Structure formats: structure tokens, C-alpha cells
Fold these 4 entries.
Entry 1:
Amino acid sequence: MTGGTIVRRVFLVVMGLFFLLPIAASVEFSLRGTDNTHTVSVWTGLVHQAGFADNLITSLELAGGTVVIILVLMVPTMAWVHLRLPRLRRVLESICVMPMVIPAVVLANGVLVAFSGLPQWINGTPVILALEYVILALPFTFRSLDAGMSAIPLRTMVDAAHSLGAGWLRTLLTVIVPNLRTAILSAAILSAAMVLGEFTIANLLLLNTFPVWTVQAGQQDPEVAMAASMLILIVTWILLMIMSLLGRQRRPRAPRPARRTR
Amino acid sequence: MTETVTSVQPDILGRQAGSHLRITGLRRQFGNVVALDGLDLEAGPGELVSLLGPSGCGKTTALRIVAGLEPSDAGAVEVDGTDIARTPAHKRDMGMVFQSYSLFPNLTALDNIAFGLRLRGQGKRARHDRAGDLLDLVGLGTHARQYPHQLSGGQQQRVALARALAIEPRVLLLDEPLSALDAVVRMQLRDEIRALQTRLGITTLFVTHDQDEALSMSDRVAVLNAGRLEQCAEPAEIYARPATRFVASFVGTMNRLSGVLTPENRVRVADTVLSVLPGGDHPLDGQVTVLLRPERIRVVPEASGPATVLRVSFHGAVSRVHIELEDGTGVAVDLASEQGVGLGTGQRVRLDLGTEPVMVAHPE
């Protein structure tokens, strides 16, 4: 074993412990019973906690809604920019990564002001939160879709589909989307993971989601809060594993398009 | 690769009787760059017309405008007398094979070919039957269930050709479909494409920058330069009688020797007097440039000859002899390789220009 390998392994172990120890401690804390015993009663009783199911469903609905809205918005937009307005790609990228540098409180208030004219069923409900999350998910979605579209001969495939008789919508649904499957799934899973763990904006808007409920529950019963947090962590981790596996199963792609002559 | 195009079954042909394509005054500009500057071109029913020219001459732009994938700034594209300028690409019925591999990676070879048929509402069985027939036609009947990444480059282009033919296109558009393939596959596939096109009688526009491809495959060759048509004629005519200086220099190798026109419309070049081919743009007397193909010159070894062999390059059946005249002019001569065996660098030779009439041009 070379010196470099030893250093790498030590570094890996140290970093692993840095991330895993707090998680292990949290799990252990959630399993503590009385008199130094351990029990799974907190975990098994989690589903019976007041607000657990409602808030979890709200968060899952928000995740699903956010994913649908952002994909419907971004897939055609990015395909259009890649094909027809390539010079705007950098502009779009700048806009899409902006939420990463804007503080949550500014974003929350900005969206409230921007959408203040919308009906009450949007403004006073988690629907407004979905719109907030669409903005928050823009960086992940842009990165995933941009990488996916850059990796396939998009223009040639779209031209081929047109020449064979497919209009724009048909081309989008039968050529672009199936060949961006991995990129779309990555964007969807990253966005869903973000929504399932987002606390700040939901709390600022006084809306109840699963992370908000977790914090509230923790003020009365820290073991329950810890178990719920771990549950979200596990769900998110499973989602990321699915994404990773799908990425590995990806079929080899067609060669990159050759330089176009005029 | 062992696949070959098989003989065509009549029921595969569909309505692939050729259409008449007419392009008039086609113009396209990208910023300050004029890609097409008033292109006029016609392809008769069943004819294969090649668009030949250097990179940036506008040939691919012309093809994409015909396909509807690119708008034109001016001009008309007519198929069988109908202007299709306002018809969107997906309603033009133009089969197109692209320079880069364009098969849909998520579909098998069979489903790629059936794609256009599905859009035309054909049932699954009917479209798979036809796609299977077309796969047989391009010699890939056993590759129906393979995905594009499991096929070689040549096989992918065969499937792309079958896919373009499946929709029974009015005009087949080939955009340098062989340029990404290696030399052996390219040679094989170009013969097969030509054989298939001839059997189907489908009107075809073929874009290429490879003059061998254009000359060997086409009924007519349209040579483009800087967005303009320089000459459109049969391959032999293009080669033997290039209409412009550009065509003469772009298609094949052309020697340019100084000569003097006589009042009898003959030209004296290197102590030989030859008659001049009619036509062409040249002065009526005085200094001219005589245009001679390398294969019409013979090299005669002669100790006191006025020319010197610089080098001999071997190209298989043919060898090219590079020769320098006394005035420093370079001349290329193509000989059957067995005739070039005795020639070596520094050898003195005399050039035999034959007796056939020659083309002349303005002096350079």
C-alpha cells in the first residue's frame, strides 16, 4: 500500500466519521428508553403522532407538485434555448442559479410580493410554497437538464424527428423526453429531496410541512423530532441512491454530433 | 462489415417514384456571412444531384432549406410545381440522412425505421412489417432488435437510410452521410446508396465535399462556391470541361501551363501546338493559361529533356510524378504505376502533351 493510498484511506475514514457520527448519535438518541435501555417505540409510534401523517402528505404533495411544475416549465424552455437560442444559455444559467445566492427570507418575501395578486387558494395555502420551491429548485434542474442536453446530439435528433413528420410537441414527448430520462429523473429527485427537507421558507410563510412539524414536535418530545428527522434523511438518501443507480444503468449514448458545415 | 443492400422487392417501393425539385433564387444570410446567394438548381424525377463544394460554400444550408429545417431569406423551393416555402418541415415528406449519427438512442433499429410510419397512423403490425422489409433491404435484417449503440457507424447510417425511405419521401436528402465512416465502409456504402437510389428511382439531393463521391454517384454535380452555383453538369462534363476557374481547381487536379494563342485558334505550349476547345472565357490571342489534367500528359525520359522529376508518389494502381519545368512551373502527371517504375528524383524528362484539344483560360 503506497503512502498516497494510506493518506486517502485515512482521509476517507475521518470524513466518514465526521458525517456518520452525528447521524448515528441522532439515531441512538431516538432509540433511548428509560434506565439506559433502548427501544423502537418512538419510531413505531411516529405514525400515530398528531400531525405526522398530514404534514408528511403535504410535503410529499409539495414535492410532487414542484417536480411537475418545474419539469413542465424547464424541459421545453431549455430544449428551445439549446436548439434555437444558444446564445441565451448563459443568461438562463445566471437566472437559474440566482436562488442559490439569495437569502431565504428575501426569496420568501419576494415571492409573496410578486404573487400578491393571486387568488386566496394560492396565496394562503401550500400552493404558494410550491411556487417558492420551483424557484429554489431551478439551479438543480438547470444543471441536470443542461448536462443531459449537452450529452446527446439534440439538434440532429430533433431535425430527424421533424423530417420524419413529428411536430414540436410530438418531438418533445417522443424524442427529447425519452432521451433525457436520466437528466429528468436527476432533476426530479434532487428537487423532491430539497422540498422534503426545506424548513426556512415554509416556517417564514407560517405553513405546516413535515420539516416544520418536526421542529415543532421536537420542542415537546426531542426523541420524536430526531426520529422524524432521520426518517426524512433516509427517504432523501434512498431517492439519491435511486438516482445514482439510474445513472449507472444509462445506455451508452450516440456519438457527439459532427461539426456542421454550411 | 458483410451486409449489402439486397434486391428490392416491388412492394417495398411504395410511391417512391421521383418528384421534380426546383430551387430558384435561394438566398440565406447569417449575420454578415452570405451562405447562399441566389442559388438556382433543378433535380428531375429519379435524378441524383450532388451539391459539391468546400466547407462554408452553402451546400448544407441549401439542403436544410429544402428540408424545411432552415428558413430562406428569399427564393423558392418547388416540388412537382408546388411551392413548399411555407410548409413546415414535418409536413414536407422529405427523407433525410444526416452527417452525424441521428438514430434515436432509446429506440431499436426496427422502431427507429417505424418511427415515421407511427406518426402516419400505421398500425403496429403494418409498420413493423414494413420496417422489417426495409431493414432487409439495407442488409440488416438480423439487427432489428439492436439499439443504435450496438451498431457500427456504417450500420447506423444504413438504418438511417432505411428510416428516411420508410416514409416514402418525395425527395431524399443526404447530408454528407458517409463523412463519419472509415474509407472502406464509405466506398461500399456509396455504391450501395447509388444502387438503391437508382432502383427506387427516387429524386435525391446529395451534399458532399468529397469530389470522388460526387463524381462517382451522381447523375449531375452542382459545384458551389461562396453560396453561388459555379457549374451544374454531368460528372464527366464537370471533369473534362470545368466552366470556371474554381471548378477547374476544385474538381480533380489541373495543371496550369503558360501558352500563346495563335491567330488560327491554336495554342503553343512547351514546344507543342495544340488546338483549343471551343467555349470558355479567354483572350482571343496572346498569353493564355493552358489547362491540362495530369492523366493526359506522358513523361518521356530524355537526357537533355527540359524538365526535371522532383519526386514520384505511389498511389496503388496510379503513381503521381511531380515535375518542374525550366521556368519553375510545377506539373503533376499521373501514370499507371508500372510506367513510373523507372522514374526517379532528378531525372531529366520531356513532356508529351498529346494531340487532343485543350482548354485555355486567362493568363495568371
Entry 2:
Amino acid sequence: MVITRSEPAENWETQIRKGWLELAILASLWGDKLYGLDIIRRLQTDSDLLLAEGTIYPILGRLKRDGLIDSKWVESEAGHPRKYYWLTNTGRRRAIAMARYASTFLTRIDSLIEPLLAKEKE
Amino acid sequence: MSHPEKLQQRIDAYLMQLRRSLGELPPDEVNEILQEIRGHILERAEASGELTDERLVAILKSLGSPEEIAPLYQADALMARARSSLSPRVVMRGVHRWSTVSAWGLALFVLGIVGYATGFALVVAGVGKIFAPNQIGAWVGPHTFDIGVNSDPTARDVLGWWLVPFGLFGGSALVVATTRALRWTLRFARIRRPTAA
């Protein structure tokens, strides 16, 4: 998870979403070249990480600056060009590393938070 | 697909607001951002069947407001502030950040220091002339050219009282011009944001 030093304090939910969103975007690009709205649709089907749809575009821009993804404008039958994104080799490696970390993290924290969830059921 | 005029105006207004909120990002970057967001809106609109005003409002709402999205593009908040601030301190902090990663940044940093130092010195001399007219002036002698306090007895004050308006206005103008020049140049700064695991 990447955090800027200059970021103002935000609520915990936003912070958690943000970290996962980056992984979710990289994961959505694992198999295909997709354009922004494709990625949004995929995230909306498979997760509820995305709040405002527009926030995905700045994240894509940052992932590109960091060399994890690349992009290209492609003319489409829709009448306006679409900007397609895909994973670079660095991005693939990062996605795998993040996925492993996330998976281990989930397993471990699961036992930690289980009592809290059990408490709720009572 | 042609949208009724009113809907088109609403889309344009949204994009205009986004352009304004993006501040002083490089123009080619701004154009690319607008093209991508415009594509998003049009495609959502086309997918919604017959586009009504309510549907368009809903599309823009789920996209998020320009004020919400624009700051996220400014990857480095410090640089973003520096690019749009009027404060020499804020601008110089951005320039300083750039100077740590680029020779261009370093050159700009030196230029900034010279510009601000000269500008502020002129203002100080202009104010000083009011309070100590005999000590402070624009001194020119055979071996001297000095604005401020004189130590060369052969030098004479060439501006006299004119130093007051010259110092105040010239100095302020130089400070403003330096700020504008630095901000303009910062558009070309490319900095990866500092990351911490």
C-alpha cells in the first residue's frame, strides 16, 4: 500500500478502500487491456470499492507515472477515442506481490477480528 | 448521437469546471484528462438509452464533482499548491522539492532566490529611504554601484527620493514577476511523489 506523506487525515473507511482499490485495478487488468469505464464496470461487479467513478482516472494516471501500467488512445466505433490501459512487466510483478500480501493479511487479520464479528451476532 | 442543446451545455459546464479545478497542470495533460472524462460521460449517456436531464445528472453525480476529482490528479500536493500559490514561500518550497531531483530545478531555485532577494531588498531600500534619507540611496561612484547604505565617500545618490517609488513598486513588481515565472516553469517539473511503505 502506498501512502503520501502530504495526505491529510482521512476517515478510516476511505483509507482502507484506497489501499485495496489499487490492487483491485491492477487485478482487473491482469487478463485484458481495458479502458477506464471497462475497469469501473468490472470493479462494480466484483467489488464495492469504488465510490465516485471519476476517482479511478487519477489513480490510473498515477499507476502509469509509477510505471505499473501503460496506456494508448484507440479510436472506437463509439465515435470518440478510448484510452486503453494494460499492465507492464513491473505492474505484473507488483500485482502478484500485492495479491500475496493481501491474501496473507486477510488470513491473519481474520482470526483477529473474528471475536468482534461474533460479538455483533449475539 | 446528438444530444439536445441543454444536455450538451450541462456536460460542457462540468468539463469547464473540471478544467478550472485542475489549476496549472500542464495543458497537454489537462486536455488528455478532459478527453478521457468526456468519453466516460458520453459513453455512459449512450448506454442509458434515451438521455434525459435526470439521467445525465445521475451520470455526473456518480462520476463525482470536479472539485472532488481534480485534486486527486495533483499527485504531489506540495507541488500542486506551489503551482497555484501567490506566496513566495509556498512557491519556493515547490521549487526546492524540484531542485532535489533535477538540475533544472536547481537552476530555478537559484533564480528564485536572486529574484526574491533583489525584489525584497528594493522594497526595504524604498521604505528605508523614507526613514533614513541621508544614509540610504542608489549610490553611484567611480568604484561603486550600490542600492542601500553607502560606504564610498565619492559616490553620489542618483535617484534621491525617487528611490521610494522605484523601490516599492519596482521591488514588488519583481517579486510578483518572480512568482509568476517560477510557477510557470514548475508546470514542467516531473516529480514522482514521495512514497512510504
Entry 3:
Amino acid sequence: MREVAVLGVAMTKFGVSDKTNLEMFAEAGLEAISKSSLNPKDIQALFFGNCLGDFEEGQLHMAPFAHAELGLPTGAPATRFESACATATVAIRHAALLVGAGIYDVVLAGGTERAAGMGTPLATRTFAMACQAHHESSAGITFPGVFAMAAHMYAHKYGIALSELKRHMAEVAVKNHYHGSLNPKAHFRKPITVDTVLNSMMVADPLQLFDCCPFSDGAAALVLAEANKARELVEKPVFIAGTGQASAGSLYLQRDLTRIKAREEASRQAFSQAGIGPQDVQVVELHDCFTIAEILALEAMGFYGFGSAYKSASSRETYLGGKLVVNPSGGLKAKGHPIGATGAAQVTEIVEQLRGECGERQVNGARVGMVDTLGGDFGTVCNIILRV
Amino acid sequence: MAAKKEADIRFSKFGTVSFTAITKVNDFVDFLEQGKVMGSRCKDCGLMFFPPRADCHNCLAGNMEWFEVTGKGKLVSYSSLAFAPIGFGDDLPYTIALVDYGQYKVFARLSPGLKPEDVSVGMEMKTVANRLPNGQLNYVFERA
């Protein structure tokens, strides 16, 4: 495999947008190409992420239209990826694999989503389409419900009073809102307190509104190239050190909801390829779709022992300035979660952190960063490790 | 002239809202109407599937028989929902849950008569066939 590097990265502001999916993606894509000292004609393939464009805009088959908006050459194939919330990460991983394999030298990857525009009941329904339709969706399953089940089980398994666990979970939201307050692109830029979380309305017991990430609109894109070409074009290429992806079927196939097996396997693959371990990582953008999800992710990736990550935010170890900075962008919780774009925004944040471009939320001395994205009810996990 | 073959859409009777009417294991719905919750078992290797499958990945074949989901399983976890997807709002609040029978697991709701405060992780549960107020069929968990 050839070494692969990230060149230009870009994301729109996340939140509620009055632009179309294609307009948002064009904005991010053109900026990423421009920052790479390239022109659209130089792009050899587009790896395009979108989940729910058919429900959001009545628009399927968006990849070739995105290709046209960006003015890419006819010979550059545009392909749509869909892996629920892990969509863009899976698109980027496959882009990296094909550049690594020597099929392409320079490609564009990313994603776009207009989730906020659907409104909560339809968005809840369409998101639940990522659960098994015959036996799970037909019972009215929701994603908050899935992670709420994980929270109940975590409290029981590790003998923690639910009220105590909820306080520590709330601290995760407080941290990510604090980080989001430092990110001009974040959906939410308002700091909150533990009381904000614990006084918010119940969504799926024990998860309250502020335990949950929002439905957001946004897009993000990045250019990937063979490493020597990247060194010629940009001052600070960031290299892909390792990737991993694993699959695990639907919720009814899971025995222990506190152990996300696909993540344990995907992160093992990524660490193995990179030849490093969790102790070598300084900054992580991980899948905090719910507060409990950040805790589960930290354990599955090996940053904490099982049953011990619930205090990670309360102890401030995962804050800016802590020993492992988790979600300095604000995470899905505060930066927002336009599902088809999320993974590309996570990579964007890690790349900018490793380049020292993050201003107030800069993780000092970051040399290795990791991206973690989960799709569905534990069915897909994709990890990417980046280094300077 | 031969009559047009009717599509087998029995699965449309399953769930508060059925999104997928067709499956190879549609007899599942007839059993449910008789009050039986059934899974499928491979006659060659004995692997048990719930929800039922038509093909066994272990034997790469479809030599299956039905078995009834009986006895007790352990409650893996649960959550009572305050918000539902479109089409499920009239059912709120309802509690989703996962029950582990060892060789297979069952995802469903708690019986409407069972409150979330009445259950705890690890509790023994049973799975029973149920008819919803809108006439649809499903299966729910009750205390074993």
C-alpha cells in the first residue's frame, strides 16, 4: 500500500441551513480543493456521503450531481456511500484504500446532510430506518432508546447508581458544549451546566434532551492524495496512519450493549495498521451521539478500561488541556450531527488540530489523532488514525 | 388463462406499523395469530434463529424447521420512550427491551401492563404473542 495524505479540508457551519445538500457540499468541496492548491479538473474520483437525501429533498443519486456542481472531469467517477451515521468516514476510508492501492492519485471525499430540515418526528422515523425494519422499526425503536438501553445496562453491570451515572453523563455534555463554544462552525456555541442537562425534558429514559445530539444540516469534504504528491502541493500534509472498519448486524444480535464489538474490532485494525496504541494518541473525535455513547467509545477503543470511562469528563481528563482531549470540536453533541457529513467533519477537526490551526480550542502538541464513527444500532464502526 | 399469483404479504399484519410486507418466513405471522411466537432452527446443525431466517449461514442451506420461543429469558436492558417516530405517537409511552434466551435474543416492547419501574436488568421475562389496539400483531415481554 502507498502512503496516503490529507490535503485541504473544509466544512460548512453546522446547524440549521437554508442551502440544499448539493450547495452545502459544493461549498465545502470547492474550499477543500482550493486549499489543496488544486483545481476540480485534478480530482480523479469523488467518494460522496449522504444518508437521507431522498426524504430530505426527494433527491436520490446525488453523487453525480455533486460531481457536476464541483466541475469534476467526466472520467472521475462519483459514488454515493451510505453507512448510517458512519457514512462519510466509510467513504473516506474507501477513498484512502483506493489511493493507497494505486488506483487513483488525487480524490475528493466527504458528505452532506440536511437532517434539521425534516423536523423531529420525520427525522426520528428516518433515522430509525437504520435499524432492522421487520422486527425493530416495526416496534417503534428509536436511537435515543437504543443508547438509553445501553445506559441502563452500564449502570447495572458496573454497580453504579443510575443517578450517579447520569451526573457523570451530564458532565460529558457540559464538556462538549464548552468545546463547541470555542468552535465558530458548531451548531451550539452556548456553554451549559450539569443542571441544564438534568432539568431538560426526558427523551428516552434515562436520556434527557441534553444527553442527545441535535439533528443538523451541514457538509464537509477533504482531498486525499498519494503522500509524495501531497508533499509537493501543501505545506503540512497529514498522513493516514491506519484505518479500520467492522460490521455487527442489528440490535437483537447484541448480547452486551456496553460492549460495541464492531468498535473493538475496527479500532484494533486501525491501531495495528498504524503500529501504535491508545497511549500514543493525543486527540480524538469520537461518536458522542449521546452522552453514554462517548463513555462506551472511550472504553471500546482502549483509552479506558471497561466500566471506568464514565468519570472521564467529570475528572476533566478529556477536556482541552487534559491527558486525552476528546471531541475538541464540540463533538456530535455541540458541533452538530448532519449524519452523512459527520465523519468528514471529524477528520477535518483532527487534520486542523494536527496542523495547529484550531485557535482557542487547539490541543497543544497534538501529533497523532483518531476519528471514530458509529453507524446504526452498533452495526457499523469506522476508525481512522491520522498523524503529522 | 392462469390466475395471477398473489403476493404473500402476510407480514403486513406485524408491528404497529409494518414497513415490509414480504418475507420468506411469512408463516411466522400465522403462528402469531395462533398465539405462538416462533423462531427457525436449522435441521442440519441445530442453529436457532430469532427473528426466524429462511437460510442457515452455518450450513449454507435452507433446511429449516420452526420452534416456539418458550421459557424464560433474561432482560438485557430496556428504555421507556417519551418520543416516537411518525406512526408510533399514539402508542406513547412505551418501553423497548431486549431479552436474552442464550441461543438467541428477542427485541420487543414490554407488555403495556408492565411499567418500567417494575423491571430491572437481568430479570426473567417471557415473550408472548399480542394484538395491538389497531388490530396489528406483535409480541411483547411479560414477567416470567
Entry 4:
Amino acid sequence: MGEVFALSNIRIRFIRGEEVKYISHLDLMKSFDRAIRRAGIPVIYSQGFNPHPNMVFGLPLSVGVTSQAEYADFEVDDSILPDEFMKRINNSFPPGLKVIDAKERHGKANIMASIGAASYDILIAAADGICADIVADKIKGFLEEDRIYVEKESKKGKREIDIRPMIIRLEIKKQRDDEERLRAVDCSSKYTNSDRWLKEYIESLYRDDVLPPGFKRESIMHLKALLSAGSMNNLKPELLVEALAGYIGQELKVVKIHRTGLFIEEGGKLLEPLDGNVL
Amino acid sequence: MEYKINDEILQSVEKPARYIGNELNSVHKDLKNIKNRFAFCFPDTYEIGMSHLGMKILYHLLNEREDTYCERVFAPWTDMESKMRENNITLFALETHDPIKYFDFVGFTLQYEMSYTNILNMLDLAGIPLYSSERTKGDPFVCAGGPCAYNPEPLADFFDFFVLGEGEEVINEIIDVYNAWKEDDASREDFLNRIVSIQGVYVPSFYNVKYNEDGTIAGIHPQRKEYPEKIRKRIIKDVDRVFFPDSVIVPFTDIVHNRIMLELFRGCIRGCRFCQAGFVYRPVREKSPETLLQQAENLTCNTGYDEISLASLSTSDYTGLMPFTEKLIDTMEEKKVNLSLPSLRIDSFSLDLMEKAQKVRKSGLTFAPEAGTQRLRDVINKGVTEKDLLDSVTLAFNGGWSGVKLYFMLGLPTENLDDVAGIADLGNKVVNAYMSVPKEKRGKGLNVTISTSFFVPKPFTPFQWEAQDTMESYREKQKYLKSCIKSRHITYNWHDPELSFLEAIFARGDRRLGKLLETAWKKGCKFDSWGEHFRFQSWMEAMEECGVDPYFYANRKREYDEVLPWDHIDIGVSKKFFIRECEKAYRGEVTPNCRVSCSGCGAASFGGGICVE
């Protein structure tokens, strides 16, 4: 004789900020569970010994990685609309987590099953004397290779895989464009503009009261990559940098990885998960 | 220049979330409005420290004050410690990442003896002089409280003051005095002079200890007559009205006890003769069901936790447990919050309760008979009979449970080989109880686990004068027990005795052990309770170097008239009572619990709780 209600499904886009970048995927899910409880959001719970909320996350992030484009699907009772969901969960989140968009979803495939690609901004630090032009040149050659083999460690042990087909796009961002673009977007939010996010991050690395890192500010380069992602083919940015470093023959230190987008492949096109065509 | 840790370090260590702070309900304040800063230190890892209820209470209590900012500090794991030392980063507090050496107070909680080396390591890592005598103006006051503070003597040289008993009131009194003192710009000693008369405050440097030729203590005396002869612990008379946080910090990562803890009552009515907690927390004081239900409501709303646990020394002894838990389960079920029930005596009511409360698989139940024969259980005043235990397990087996864990101690006073064999015997009887339950009723795959630990005589117990069994004797008993256990359904686990031996030394140690602690720490001893870090050999070397005879502390039987290192501490329970209890123990006589009749232990002098009900 419980209340009669219909189910609905909400897809959200959220930020994983600097404050929460060191928590594991499992702990991130727990944070959502608790935020939902605090906010009193009518999420549907699974049956069984340990009921847990029916929620599905896009693609787990490695520990230490930030993101401005995480996605998750929630099964809720239809008394709550996406805007209300967003407002309530944001009020109960700890700093570093924030939902920036929410829409109702009618499609069949949940977010985890649909992801096909992910884009990243990667800050690397190269040895002295390696300038952005040299790396840009090397990337060109790197991408002209037919096959790029790397050793991948999995549960079954180490194996060689060809990552070339999984690199959809890779480029280095020039310093000068950076500044121009930043000036143009100065008023835009950090949450939608990764250049701004990373600029703030670099500034935080060299703050007076923080231990200076082992690399110079000038040696930091900014890569932008679009990589295959999801359950079929998944290329982690760490592995890409390792392969690139091997190709260049220079050590490249990963300073920071920041996810800028997740995409669903639909009819040969990559679409944002909140795009009307996939919802 | 003092630097804060950077991302490069965090990315290179195990579990970086231990060091970042920013958890939900952690407190952030504008330093401009703060008069004093308090570093609340737990001398173990984040996961252990964050599970401690006392820290949660005092953290939020201190932060209720507008003039005070309390932050948390844990022992960094060894990987982080090396990075910090490499980069000259001193120990910092979690909320601001500021170095704690600039704080006003650095307060440690003393939960177990084997965390003492971590205290020295943390002080050193903080850049704070180890010895209180070496601290000068500008250094924080280093203080401590918690159960091990009842015999604070091994730590006397390192601490400016100790706080004995429950801290909720006294900590505010101390800070009020501190604020006035700070304005007066007076000496460190002047501050200690101002707080020494507050009940519960013990300033060890104000007391002299004299020794006899045989190494025992001749006397402990205050240096001035204004200082109290005896330092009496503090209690909160009305636990219903005392501060309890409405919200607690919710860690991002998993910790040992990751759930809401509701404190049912303080103290324990039982008086098991080996148990220090059963005496030092007297008298028993309960919270009312109304208070508890309100606190449960607040905490679930503010944390989002999906589990709530009842904290006390013996849950079953809470008056009106049945109606209270029924209401609690009702309200929590709606919120899909599970109830977990530790320290429950197993009877039909509690089994029923567990079934209702915890929707978990019926895997394991835990019992602590502590001793293998009725004779020895009477000696230790463990009010459990064999029949109680077998009735309980039979009920449980009938209800579908199939796993039973049994905890025992080896080395209890008066123990003989029959008592040891009795443990195996009891294990067999539990197996037989299972076999006598019809197959269709009992769960599949019987598993009885017997675990033994090594008895450590503790101060403020009737066994405070006892010799700890030798390690050799303990090992023999353990081997003998192993040979007695024949059933394939019984698994036997035991602890190695070395750690308990050290614990026995420090539990009843005196001021002369300070040097030993420092020497062992300098040899690399830290995280002693973590098997992978425990270096028994280094400890033995340190004892050799410091001329400390471990057997004097651990394995020597004391006379009743010997001056004990903690004789100047007054927990309210009298020495006379302990002597009486010790004599009764040797006669195998039991003492009824506080609810049945008062045994005149002395705790009634506090005028609170069960003693005046």
C-alpha cells in the first residue's frame, strides 16, 4: 500500500574539483549516496540485504585526476524534477563536488554502457631544453606511426597493445594562444573552461606558502587529447604520456590530468551525454 | 620558510586522502577572529583516529567556541613522514595545513600504551621540543587525556599537563584561564600554576617522585602545598545535558568505524576484575532514550550515514534497551539506516533484535567468556556461566547462525593448565551444541574460532598488583591449548606475547620509563601496534641501554602497601575496594553488578549516575 509513483531517470553532469580529486571511485559513489540522503532526494533503492541507490556513473577517474565533465544517471521517483535535484544535491555536497547540469533521460542505455570517448587536458613537465615546438613536432611524427605498442598491465598480467587507434586527437597547446584565449574567456566559469582551471592550478603550484614542485613553471606544457574510452577500448591518459615519452626519448612528468569531456558515439558522431539526441 | 605539502608529495604517497582534510562537516574558521588554536592529535593513522568518538565530541565542542579553532592531526604514515622530513615540512593540522608548532595547545588522546612512540615521533616531526622542561615561550602547551592518562607517569617528562577523566567541562575551563593568561603575557610556569587547582588537571613537573633502594617508589609529593596531593578525575554528572555534536565529520575514505556512534551510557555496571574501563569510567550514567533518539535524528540528517552504532561498554546493560531500540529501528528503517549492535549479550531478545536491525547474513557472533573454566571466570568476576554461553549459542544455531567467535585471555591470575584445557573444552561444547540442532534449522558450515590474547594487568583494577605471566609460560600454555583442540570445526588464533609484554611494562610504568621511550623511538620504534613496524629487538636493546629491567615492571607481584606510580591519581574508586576485590578473586567469590547491589567502591562520592538513582 505504498505510495504510487512513477519512475524517472535523471542524468547529471558534475565537477570533480581539486578538493576531492584524491578520493577513489568507490568513495565518490559513497559521497553521492550520503549527499542524496542528506538532501532527502527520492532516489530509488535496490532491493536486497544492503539497499543502495540506483545510480550509474560514466567512467571512473583515476585518483588525483580532476574533471569538469563527469556524468551519472539516477533513478528517482518522478516527484522530483532535474532542476530541483541539482539544487538540493548541491546544497548538501562538500566543497569540490558540484552538479552543473541535469536533465531527464528517456534513452535505454545508461551512461556507463554508452561512453565511447573522453577528452583530457594534460599538463606535463619536460626536461630543460625541450620546448613546446619540439614536442609539437614529435607529436606530429608520433601520430604518423601506424602502430604504437605499449605495455599494459591488467589483472591477467602484462601485455602489448596498440594504442594508435585509440588516439583520436592529440595536440599541444601553444603558450601564446593560451593567453589570448584566456583573455577572451576571462569572465567564463572555471567549470566550463579548462584553460582557466589549469591556469589557476599552475598558479596554486607556485604559491608562496606551498613547497615548490620539482619542475620549473616554464617547463610545463599543455596537451589536449581525445581518446577512446569506455568498456570496449579505453586509453588512460597516463599511458598515452608514457608512450609519447618513449617515442620522444625523454622523460615527461605528468603534472596534472584534467578531464574535459565524455562522449557518446552515435551514428559516427561523438555527442555530449546531455545532448538531446542521446537522452 | 615553512612550506605546506604540495600535490607532488600527495601524488607520491599511499592514501593521499588521509592528508587533505575538507571533509563534510569539518570546521573552517577565519583566523582573524581566533584567540587560540588547538591541535587535537591522535597518535595513529587517520583511519583509526577518525573512528574515535571522544575526538569527535571534543573537536566540535571546542569549535563551538568563537575564540578557539580546533584542528585534527594524525600520525602520518611512514611514506608521508619521509617526504615531510626530506622537504623540511613540519607536522601540520588537517584543516589549514598550518604547522602545529605555532598553535597554543597540542593535545594528544592516549588510547593505548603502544601509541606512545608515535607521540614522540609526532612532537619531533612538529619541531616541538620533546621534553616539557625544554619548551619555552612561543612553544605550545602539550597536554593529554584519555584512558592511559590515568597512569600518565611514563609520559610525565613529555607533557606540560594531563587532564584526567571526561573532558567536556574541564577543557573549557582551561581555555578560559589560558585566554586571561595570554593577555597578561606571563611565564609558562605561571599558566600551569593557574590551572593546577582545576579539578582533573595534573601538572607532572609540579610533583617529585622519590625511590627506594629496591627500585620501588618511596613517595610522590607535590612541590608546594598549594598543589593538590591527589588529582581527582572529572566526570560529567548529567550525560543527558552534556554537549554532543549534531554533526560529525564524514570522511571521504573508508575508516575503521565509518558510521554514526550513539553513546548510550558511560561506565559499566559489571566490574570484571581485569577490565580497567569498568572501573575508571564509574559511575554508570545513562542517556535518556529521548536524548538518544534526538541525537540519532540530527546525526543522520547531517551526515547521510547509512549505519548507526550503539556505543557503550555493554549494550545489553542499558535500561530499557528493548523499547529504545524498537523506536530507533522504526525511525531508522524509514531512512534506510542500519543499526549495528556491538557488545550485546546474546539471548533471545538480542537475537531477535539483531535480526530486525541488521539485515546482514547470519555469519558470525562473538562471545567473550575470557576464561575456560567456571572457577577462573569467578576469579575474574566475569558474570557468565557455561550454561549462559551454551544457551546463547544454541539459540543462535537454531536461528540459522553458523559462525561463533570465542575470545579468551591466557595468563589470568591463578590460571592453571585445567583452565587452559577448559578453553578447548568449551569450544567442543559449542560444536556439540551445533550438532544437536536439527539440520534444517541450523546454518551450513559450522565455524568456531577461538582466539586468545595475553592478559595485561592494568592500573586501577583489582589485578593491579599482579605479575604478568612470563612470555615463556604464555607460549607453553598456548601450545598446550593448541594440542587440546582436536575438532576440525575449531580454528585457533593467538597473539604473540611481545606486544602485551611491552604493554604491561608501560601500563604500570613510572617516570623512569620516559628515557626508555625516547631511546626506543630513536632506534626507530614507531607504529608499534602495527605488526609490520613492531621491532621487539630494538625495544630490548633500548631497555638494556637505559638500565630498565622489564621484569620489574611486567612480571613482579606487588605488595598492597607498595606505593604505586599512580597512587596520587584519584579515580573515585578506592584502593580499599580494589584490595577487597583482589582478595575475593583469590577466593573465587563473585561481586554482584552495580544494579543488583552497591559494593561500596567509592564512585558514589561523585554524586551522579547509578550511585544516586
